[in-house]
Amino acid sequence: QVQLVESGGGLVQAGGSLRLSCVVSGVIVNRNSMAWYRQAPEKQREWVATMTTSGNQNYAESVKGRFTISRDSAKNTVYLQMNSLKPEDTAIYYCKPIGFASWGQGTQVIVSA
Prior knowledge:
Structural class: mainly beta
Mean pLDDT: 97
Strand order of the largest sheet: 2-10-9-4-5-6
Number of helices: 0
Shape: globular
């Protein structure tokens, strides 16, 4: 059974940084591509970033150069480092193993202007 526990969200001013964590069980993070998604108020959930098993990273254009996805195999945890945050980054952030239907509860990020 796949379980995902996201944390690290909060309220931050524009230009600030946050690091999100996703503790994963039921899937080995370095043996499965992992992704971050987000859902802003009254908008559809959108893809943010992916890390493949080989370590390749891909980012949505809106976050490229500001966000970094990484993983710690020993902790079976995936991270999303978010820098230069903008108000439009406000959303609930979710991590998800590619190919699985499971979602966690997400972590709320609010960026004030």
